[in-house]
Amino acid sequence: MAEKKEFLDIARERFSCRKYIKDKEIKKEDILKCIEAARIAPSASNSQPWKYVIVDDIILKEKIVDFLRIGITKFNQFAKEASAIIVVVEEPKNLELTVGQVFLGRNFANFDIGCSVMQFCLEATELGLGTCILGIFDEKKIKKLLKIPKNKRISILISIGYPQETIKVKNRKEIERIFSFNQYN
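User: That's the sequence. What structure does it adopt?
Assistant: Structure tokens below.
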């Protein structure tokens, strides 16, 4: 039996994978485990403002990779090697949350979707899969391609597959620089 990993080990292992083993298909049950991890993420007023569209069809995936652009400048073309691209769509919030957001001038869905996406990515890491969160894309073209209603918003994309690269050393601030007790200093 494999030794159970500590959460911090999984968090340290998760990295933005940019080299995938091409043509290695992910088992559907592993993708669904990642979706389950995303599903149980916390959200403001339990609104769960997300829907995950799993794109594993080769032709659709290639078209989405072509839409990873701003104007004519393409980005993140490594995603064509990924086994799938996950399109995360923001779903409507409940009335209580909508009122709170307007009153406070905040979009809680951004935070909620971030929590859900990170849980998806951490579960993928635990399963030996690599992920990269992609923020540059032509939303209108992807919405049209995947028949996502015009009144919906795509929050983020995630490439997922078997990593060809190893865990990279993470360059992070020292822990002492990111916290303080009882006051900002």
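The chain has one domain: 14-165.
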